[in-house]
Amino acid sequence: QFERRVREKERQLSAAPRQLGSYEYLAQNSIKYVPDHRRTMVDRASYMEFLETQLERATACCHAVQAYSQRMDVIQDSLTTAEIQLVENEKLVRTLQAISSQ
Question: What residue spans of the chain are helical by DSSP H?
Answer without folding.
Answer: 2-15, 23-29, 37-101
